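On clarity, I found the account of how folds are encoded harder to follow than it need be. Since the whole study asks how a given chain folds, the encoding of that fold should be made plain. For the editor and my fellow referees, an illustration may be useful. An entry of this sort, consisting of the sequence and the corresponding backbone structure tokens, reads as follows:

:::
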Amino acid sequence: PNITGEPGFNRDATSWSVLPGIRLRDARQLSGSVRLGRARLDHVGDAIRDFSGWVGDADLLYRPGGATRIRLAAERQVGFSVYQGNEYYVFDEGRVNAVHYLTRIFGLEGEIGRGSLEIPGVERVDRITRYKAGIRIRMPETSIGRRAEYRVSVGRISRDSNDDRFDRSRGTFGIDIVFGY
């Protein structure tokens, strides 16, 4: 109640979603999952608008050849928000990531993503852009199936809002290590 400074402002709500989808088994060229459905966000009182709409996510991995992998990922989600007196946010994003191994050990990676964050009620819309480039080092698999992969990447994330107070831009640097069997 104290978030907006208005006495008696109740943010209690119930959220549900139904996301039927398909999952593609790990095949040689295409694998992943796609889910699409409806979501609803019902607030207790009438002071805040409810949401009813489409949500979903997708994550598909395409292997056109042994040395290349292309991943497509997308999502649309709705969630509770505590920004001023608004009720919820809607986040949409799509990303494409490509990895190409030049040798059995050394590979290059690139990623680009575009998205939006909408906050109804205050009419705020943020456009989000992501870029990433990196190198991967894949160690040969051991006789018992153990593998390790290292990744070093640099990137940039920019947020351009129709409210200039929320404009942001930053560089990123990441080091990832993946162990598995």
User: Anything to note?
Assistant: Residues 72 and 96 are 5 Å apart (CA to CA). Strands lie at 13-18, 21-24, 30-43, 51-65, 68-80, 88-101, 106-119, 124-138, 147-161, 168-180. The longest strand covers residues 51-65.
